[in-house]
Amino acid sequence: MIGKCLCGVVQFEIVGELPNLYQCHCSLCRKVSGSSSNSAMLIESKNYKWICGNQHISSFARSSGFRSDFCSKCGSPVPNKMKIGNGYWVPVGLFEDILEETLEVEVAAHLYVGSKACWHTIGGNAKQYEKMPEISILNKILMRTSR
Ligand SMILES: [Zn+2]
Ligand SMILES: [Zn+2]
Known about the structure:
CATH class: Mainly Beta
Number of helices: 2
Shape: globular
Bound molecules: zinc ion
CATH topology: Metal Binding Protein, Guanine Nucleotide Exchange Factor, Chain A
CATH architecture: Beta Complex
Number of domains: 1
Distance between the termini: 22 Å
Number of strands: 11
């Protein structure tokens, strides 16, 4: 499945079984997305490939370590290599085509609901966490193969 930023300069591909998504409602993700939350997938490195444009990626990091990578031409958030584990954080709004198989993908977890925007109501039956669960727990929740 191919993902592209708004202007199309940055492109990447993911292969293999897709995991479920999570949405993070923390104050930082709200700023980065300009919305109520971000929606993302965690993809193992072996299933992730840059196609082009990584030289146009700019990065902003807070002293806490929170980092946002974005296209320097259009400003879209783009995937970044995670500090913990061996994978990529991928914002799912960048995917080009919604293929048949992806229709089964669903939001499986909401993170940092303790600091969500007061004007946003979270729907659905996904698990909700006040803060961030352990990464191993999160990965397990997002796995679809066990179902
Ligand atoms: Zn762009
Ligand atoms: Zn967040």
